Structures are given as C-alpha cells and as structure tokens.
Fold each of these.
Amino acid sequence: MIFGRSQRGKPPVEPVTLKILVAGGFGVGKTTLVGAVSEIRPLRTEELLTEAGRPVDDVSGVEGKHTTTVAMDFGRITLREDLVLYLFGTPGQERFWFMWDELSEGALGAVVLADTRRLEDCFAAVDYFERRSIPFVVGVNCFEGAARYPAETVRQALDLDADVPLVMCDARDRESVKEVLIGVVQHAMTQAADRRRAVTT
Amino acid sequence: MSADGQGRNHWFDDEAGPVVRPYAMTRGRTTSAAQHRLDLIAVVVTEPHADDPEADVTLSPEHVDIVGLCRESPQSVAELAAELDLPVGVVRVLVGDLVDIELVHVNRPVPPAELPDENILRDVINGLRAL
C-alpha cells in the first residue's frame, strides 16, 4: 500500500514531555515514590542487553548470548493536556549504570532517595549526578523504626554541596512526594539561572 | 487462544519466557536506519491517514498494535514498551519502521543539555502544586 505524503490535518494534542529520575539504593522506596504521585500504576519497561554489548549498548546478536533484562519502573503525571511529566526509577544495580546515561539525557533533574540506615547505598547516585551537573535533590525517606537524624548530619555524611537541597520525606505520601518533586524543578531553575549568569558574565 | 490474540489467559504463563524471541519481531534488527535513538519519553503520534494499518500486509501485528494505541492518544516510547510488553529496543525499531512509511511521526522531547523554557518549568511547579 502506498501512502501519500503525510498531511498535517488537525493533529491530536502532542504533549511536551519531561522526565525526572528517581535514584537510590535497592529497596529504598523508588517505586513507592513513583506510585505515590503517578496517575497510572507504575509501569515497567524492560531492555534486553548482552553482557558483551556493554557499554556501547549494541544488542546485535543478542539471541543466545548472555542476555540481561534491565527493568525500569516509571509513572506519569499529566499536568496539563499538553504537558506530561514522567518519573523513572533508575535500575538499582550498579552494573546497569550505563543505562543511566540514556535515562538522564534530557532529564529535568533527579531525586536521590536515601535511607539513613543504609546511607552508603546512595553515594554512587549522588556522585553520578554531581559529576554530570544534573540538578538533584536528596530525599531522606523516613522509614518507620529508623532513627531520625538532623538534616545537617545527613548532609555531612553525604558530603553534599551546600546548594544541593536535602529534604525529609515519606515516599508513600503523595503530598510529601509532590514537595520533593517541586524541589527538584525549583533547583533545576536555580541551577539553570546560575549557569546563564556564569555564561553572560 | 483468545480471538484478539492479546488475551491474557494463555495456557503458558510468564515464567515460560517469551514464546517469540523479542528481536524476531524486528527480523533481527536492533537499530533502525532512519532513526537515531528514540528517547523513552519521545511521543509517537499517528498521522491522520493512518486509519487502517491492518490493510498493509507488510506490517507485523506489533506494528499494527503500536498504530492502534497511538491513534487513541499519542504515547511515549516507554508507555508503548510497557503496554505491549516488549523491550524498549524492539519498540524503537518498530516505531522507526512506522516513521519510514509515514504512518506515525515522533515528537522529540527537549534536546539534551538544553533545559526547557523557564515558563514550562514554572508550569510544572504549578501543575504539581495543583495535583
């Protein structure tokens, strides 16, 4: 069948899409956080990869090789008909970090979710976003039964730069997660403004 | 087997793994000539004339599924992959095919390293507050 040249009639609304990444160690509550604000049950996408294909991500000859599945959970928030925000939980295992490069491309910013009982689990994520100048906010997920530490103590333990926001949050609570996400966008705006100033002066 | 071929009550379960190897659907292709990598949040939009993809015998059922889903409302690559239960890489190739034959076009997200307009960011904040 031969189709004519594409004719732009009255097109459906084509939304502007944005993404925020949610990173942190295994079991820290990334998918819970996504689920707390997503209008859809967190969906899962999978990517097949060969061990040999890393890190160039060329999956040719994938069949029969050692294939690995990397799963990413994501959610969606339709802010307006023409403005949609996606949240992506990053694959937790460090050996899938090359996937982050793709995920973080064009990302608005990130949330690094931390658990004070296993703070070291998020060191790598903090490091990753710092190196790439991706704006991020650290959200300390306040688990029941975990000791509470003052924000300043956590900040020092993570060796955070002074301008990186750190907030206490509850990944199950919609209002709390909303605040964290607003923090990410605000921080991204500040960082962009700083960068612009640095360029123009 | 269900009539629509999509039924969930197959005699096998997911533990058996995919019956068709995922990249068989792309005839072994892992990249699409015309497309550089589609972002997970790139939005696939059907062209107005893409109302009868079944009529094209060169299209696979998965191609037809993608057109069908996107006709209802534009879908991101990530959503298509989740909805069709296909690896993202497979969806990219299939969407690339559909772009080539002009059944769909792809609305790319904000280019990397370029933060979206400040007004958009403000809209995002307001939108989140209003949730």
Note: Chain A has one domain: 16-45+71-200.
Amino acid sequence: METSSSLSFLLTVPLLALLISWVIPKALQRLYAIFGSAMILALTVYETSGIIFSVSTEAAKAFFVDQRLEWVPELGLSAGFRLDGYSAWFLVLSALTTLVAFCVRGVWYRKQPRLFVSMGFFLLFALNSAFLATDLITFYLSYEAVFIPMIFMVGIWGENQKASSVFRFFLMSFAGSILMLVSMFWLMSLHHGATGQWSSHLSDILGSVSSAQAGDLVWPCAGFFLAFALKVPLVPFHGWLKDVYVNAPMPGTIWMSAILSKLGVAGIIRFVIPLFPAVLREYQGILLALSALSVVYAALLAVRSDQGKTLLAYSSISHLGFVMLGLFSLSQEGVNAAMLLSVGHAVTSGLLFFLLHQVEERTGDTSLNESKGLASSFPVLFTGIFLAVLASVSLPGTLNFGGEFLVLLNAYRASALCTILAGAGVVLGAVYMLRFFQRLGLGSPGSAGPVEAALKKDLSMTDILMVALLVGIVIYGGINPGIFMKG
Amino acid sequence: MNEVIHTLMPWLVLAAGILLTLLVSVIRVESKRPAQISALLTLVVTGVLSLQAISLPGEAIFAGSIEVSSLTRILLALFSLIGILFVLGGDRYLGKERIHLSDYYHLLLILILGAGIMVAAKDLVVLFIALEVMSLPAYTLAGFRRNDSRSNEAAIKYFVLGGAVGAVFLLGSAFIFGATGSTLFPSIHEWSRQSTTGGNPLFAAGHFLVMVAFLFKVAAAPFHFWKPDVYEGAPTPVTGIMSTLIAVASFVTLVRLVHLPALDASGWETYATAVKVTIRSLAVISLLVGSLVIITQKNLKRLFAYSSISQTGYLMLGLLASLHPGQGISPVLIYLFGYVFAAVGIFVLMTQSEPRGDTGVELVDLTGLVKRSPFRTALWSILLFSMAGMPFTVGFFTKYLVFLSSVGTGETPLVVLAALCAVVSAYAYLRPIGLMVMRDADPGAAQWGGGFWSQFVVVVSVIAVVFLGLMPNAMIHYLKGIPLIH
C-alpha cells in the first residue's frame, strides 16, 4: 500500500467513475453517484489507512509517498504528488463531501443528470490532484481545474442571478490564482538563476528559496497569500462568497463550503508556510489580526442574516477564520490544530447544508423570519439539525471543540489580543446557531405554512444514514482528535 | 544556379502553382473546382517540400538578400498549412456569400508567396517587395464581398493604411541606407558593431520608421485603429488569414527589424534602452486596449480583432525578453504557433453561422447553442479556453512561456499587468461559452451549419490545441532549437 501505485490509483478512480457515468441510464444516475462516491470513499480510506489510523505521526511517516513524473523537462515541468498526513485527510474529506453532495436530491437529477454526475466526479479528481500536488505548476493546474465543474454547476443548476454569480466567482478565483502563477514564475526564475535548471518542484524550489533575501520574497508570498485568502476566504476578500453560495445549487454549496475552501488551507500548509517562513513571521501580527477579524466580522454578519443559506455561508467564513488563526500561529501544533478544525468544519458544514436542503424541500424556503416548527412535523430531521447545531457551536465532545480549543491555545502564544477577539466569535457563534435552531426547529409552523408541492415525509433511509455517518465522525473525532493530526 | 533552384524549390513550386491556378481558372470559367484543387495541390506540395528540407543548413542566396533557413522553411510550411485549412474550411462560406470565384484562390497563393518571401528576406528592398506582394492580394481579398459596403470600407481602409505603411517603410529604409551604406541586414548589423557612437540620428530615425511600419502591420496599439473595421468587413476566411498568416509573417519580420542593429554592442546602451522603453510602453498600451475594449464587443469578428491586439501585447513581452542577452526568441515563435492553431479553428467556426446580412456573427447567434448543436459547442468551448489561456490547451503553454521568460529578465511588474489583463479578457472569451451553455436560444439567433470539410478543419484545430496542451514537448523542443536572427 505504500507503493506509489496507490497515488495513481487515487487519482484515476474518480476519472473511471466519470467515464462510467456516461453509460448509466438517466434514471439511475443518483443511485450510481451515491454508490460510486461511497466506493471511492471506502477505497480512499483503505489506501490511506496506513496514515490515518496510525498511532502517531512517526508511525504514519512510513506510509508517506512521494511521486514525480517528468512532463515537459525543457520547462522544468513535472507532475509531483505527495501523500502525507495532511493530504491523506484532505483526500478522505473530498471523497466524503462528494458523497454528501451527491446524496442531495434536486433539479440536477432531473435536468441533465449525466452532466451533473460527471462534473461531480471530475471535481473530485481535480480536488485530489490539487491536495496531492507538490509541484507548483501541477498544483496551479489542478487548482484551476477545480473551477471548471464549479462554474458549470452554478451556471446550469443555479438560482436567480446565476450568470452574475458565475462571473464573479470566476473572476475572483482567476485573478487570485493568476497572481499566484506569476509568483510561481518568480520562484522558478530564482531557482533557474541559482542552479541553471528549470524546475517547479517544491523540493527544488525550497532549496533556492532558503538562500534568498526575505525582503525579495514579500511579493511572491503576497501572490500566494492573495490566492488562498480569496479562496478560503479571509474577511476583506470575502465579497464574492455570499452571492455564489446562495445562488449555487445545494450540492455546489456543499462542495464549496466543505472542501473548496480547504484548498486554500491546504495551499497554505503545503506551500506558503514552508516557502516563506521569514516573511510570515514578519507579518504575523497582520495575518493573525485578519484571521480574528474574519471570525468576528463574519459572525456578526451571520447574526444579522435572515436566510438559512446566508447564515451558514457567513458562519463558514467565521469558522475558517479560526482555521487561519491556527495556521498563522506558525507552530507545528497550531497547524495540526487548524487541520483538526478543517476536518470538523468540512464535516459540520456539509451536514448543515445537507439538512438545510431537506428543510427547503419540506417548507419551500430557508427563511429565518418566522418559525418553521419542524420538531412537531419532522422529528427525525429536527434531531439531525439539533445534533448538527451542537457540533457547529463546538460543544465539548465534538470535533470542533477540540479544534477550536487547540487553535486558541496555540494562537494565544502568538498574540493574546487576537485570541481574545476570536474567542468572542465563539460566543457569537452560539448566538446565531441557536437562533438558526430555534427558528427552524421550535415554535409552531408560521402563517405561510408548508407550500403545496413540498415533501410530506420525514428523512429517507439514505438521508438518515448520511446524517448518522457525519455525526459519527464528529463524535468519534471529538473523543479521539489525535487521528487528524499527523503533520 | 542549380543550387539556388534546389534551395528555393518550395517557393518556386508555389510561384508555378499560382500560374497553374490562374490558367485553369481561365480554361474553365464556369467551375471553381479546378482552381480550388490546383491551389490545394500547390499548397500541399509546397508544404511537403519545405518540411522535407527542414533540417538542411541555412543558406544565403542572391548576394545574401534572401536567407533560407530552418525557420523560413517551417514558416512556409505553416503558411501552406494555414492556406490549406482555409481553402477547405472557407469553401462553403464563399458559396453562401456568392463570392466563390476562381480569383480567390490565386490571390490567396500570391499572398502566401509574399509572406513566404518576407520571412526569408535579409534585405530591406527585398523585404519591401515581399511586403507588397503579400499586401496587394490582401486588399483585394478584403473587398471580396463587393456588393457590401462594409467589405468595401475594409478594403479601402486596409489599402490606404497599407500604402502608408509602405511609404513609411521605404522612407525608413532610405534613412538606414544613408546612415549605413547598405540595405543588407548582415551589413547593417556589422556596421552597428563597429560604430561605437551608438548610432547616429539618421539611423535612429530610419530604424524607428521601419519598426513603426510593422507595428502598424501587427496592430500594436496605438497603431491598431484600422483592425476592427477591416476584420469586420472582410470575408470571414480572409479575416482568418489576416489574423493568422499575415500576423505571423509580420510579427516575425518585426522581430527581425527590431534586432537589426546589434543592441548589445558597446556604445549602444542608450539606444537599446530607448528601444526597450518603446516596446515596453507599446506592450502595456496594447494589453490594456486589447483586453479592456474586448469586453464591450458584441460582434465576434470585432471581438477577435481586439483579441489579436492583446495577443500582440503578449508577443511584445516575448520580444522585450528577447532583447536581453542570452534570451532566445522561442517564446514568441511558440506563442505564434499556438495562437495560429486555435485561431484557424475559431475563424472557420465563425463561417459556419448562416449569414445575417452585412455584420457577420454576433454574440447573440451563440445563445443556446448547446441545445441546438452540442458538438459544435464543445469545439467552440475548447478553442475559446485556449484563447483565454486555460490549462490543458496550447494557449496555456504559450502564455506560460512568454510570462516565464519575461519574469526571468526582470519584467515582473509588466507580467503582473499582463496576467491581470489575461483575467479581464478571459471574461470576454468565457462569456460566449456562458451564452452557449447557460442561456436559451434568442429568437434572433442565426442557424448554424457547416459542411464536412469545414467541420473537419475545426476538429483538426481542436485536436492540435488539446494535443499540444497536453504534450507540448515536441513543439517546444523543436522551436527552441531554432535560431532566429543572426
């Protein structure tokens, strides 16, 4: 399992699933998508089990895999992939998120379902390739490839102002990533100047960067940082997010919030922190302040939201602010804590958006202006929301609790002020999530009442299994957080 | 003499083919097929002969005024290929527009011959003659839709501009001759090596004039104003030829002319700086004009006119990098090749919409295309992705190389600007895809339909774009080995 074939395997299986989806009849697409992504999830866990179930980081290291294939030697282009303690978990998360997203019923299984399912598998492939990449250009290519299915999803199955959302999303992403590409060129030229060889592999670039002046590295670092800050997003760069999340079809929102945002986290862990340690240390104060600002500002926006989808979108930014706080504490423990919280955020936000879609199917909208009273009519769904809200407010014993606790602990060593500020975000989180819970679950159904075409039944068996799986991970991770920290 | 004939064989075959095509069109006036077949045969033979001789050493003939090298051979082969593709792909369009005349084919061959000589010219006078041989048929072809006022406008604009370019070029050549006593490139180069004063005002004026002439030709902003009108008015296959064949020939010549004096010679530092500043500013203006104005365009031909202006901007980045010691011209060449492969497909695709009077294809014609014609939508999307420089198409690698070489020569701020311009213009390239996939067909949208050959050409172009996007090794490796100038 520690041979390099496992990497090629992890990359090719989604593509295989994509090809098969073209011969599956339209009526069976949902079944196939759920089955296929569940199989991929099982295979991913199996292939990475050496790392994710090992008792310690030291033991996991035996299973780390590096693979490098030459592509265009004249330009120093190679395809470099690395399976390690971080990428193993990101792979599992992307397979898990794909399973959750495919589980969601909706117009995408009626209008061009084949295109939807193949886009989903392509997205999974691009995500896996981006999480594994250790070659700068391989990473850039995979990072761009992730946008393509996302753009189609918003454009074809999106709501309301989908066209403007698509272009906002595209321009935001492309502007960020192309400046990252220019930074990559700068690093490659630096390496070429130092050694006379073209290379874009991280291990080669690291060698030349270490001898460069920290002052010269500020701009390249800014290029990378901007791309990832837009992707996560950090607060002054979050303007695109609300429109895109709200107008995207629900599977798209699940993918974006649960896993696409982790591309930024993975990029910072893999590239920014190793490449620019001195620059980050110099600007650490600003970075921590931005992260704390993200936590609080997004939480305030969430408190004010009157739509469930908007509220969850802002809550997502707020939680990711914690992740960034952990990363920019610039210690190994901080990064590990951020990793733990990333897993927690991916699972809970996937769960919340999944349940919110169930609410929308049954009551027609996600408005929080009046009570929906789900407790009386849909007790199973209500229970699911109850558990998800508890996970989201970081109740002790859940995955998020461990993550937020460790992040705050590590960030405190770097900046007490920012940590205290971010701590306020935890309280605000409880404020908006409890309101979310109260309006959806409690009270009696509002005057509008359920709409005509709405579902009358409670959660189906697959939905219950899905909720149980996610809740199980949240609780297991709360008890045994060590398995997520193998960096 | 035998030697010379042997070296010039592809060019001579092309010249003979022109006569043959003219002859068969006179013999059978009522049918266009003989002229078409004769033109195709001529181009195939020319292309094969030049590819066959490609690895032979370079040779200067006619007292050094023409140099046949690997570069000129591969460019002639490329020109023949472009000609073949447009003859095949434009066939149905010409019929639809009722301008399918035999003259079209021999004019096209004369144009290709002119371009083929132009890239081989090593003498200002030969270069001028080649320029005229290339341009005169181009004016005629631009006005080929002779009952249409826009086509007439295009021809007149193109002609007047071309006349001005010729005059400016001749004036510059005269100045250079006055300053250096020669019109041969190697002699001028030699003169610049020996002149330690860094050139004199007469030479500087002459050099700038000949450069300006070709800056008009490649439509670097602010010398670009003629391009959208000419592109819009000319028949679509002719626009395609202008955008590919004439653009490549003109840009390669521009690179040669910029490198006319030895800019790295001692005493030439000030002059070299002046040239660099000029090119840098023109690159900035072209990028800004090209990528900002393109987003407001509704007519596809005008859209691609502005697109080619911004492509000129990226090419100027490569040209600027080539002025630094130790940097080759290969990024420019690779960029040109990559651009040609995508542009041929795009212009042939444009001929496939049913004509809507005088304006050609509008963006609105693309609405809802995915429902009407999914395969064509896929072809459009891949080609537009390549234009936008998206990964896994050849357009990505060409931009990649140009940007990389520019960053390597310390032009990072310029590359940042160019990268942002790429983002802005990507909007213009992706909006058509959005209209095709995400909108329902507008009631005014034109029908689409192409014959077998037209579709064949587009598929060939798409295969080239994707193949070179995945496996650029061969092209990059080969073109990297070609020395361009001295």
Note: Chain A touches chain B at residues 72-75, 140-141, 144-145, 152, 155-156, 162-163, 166-167, 170-171, 174-175, 178-179, 181-182, 185-186, 188-189, 192-193, 219 (CB under 8 Å).
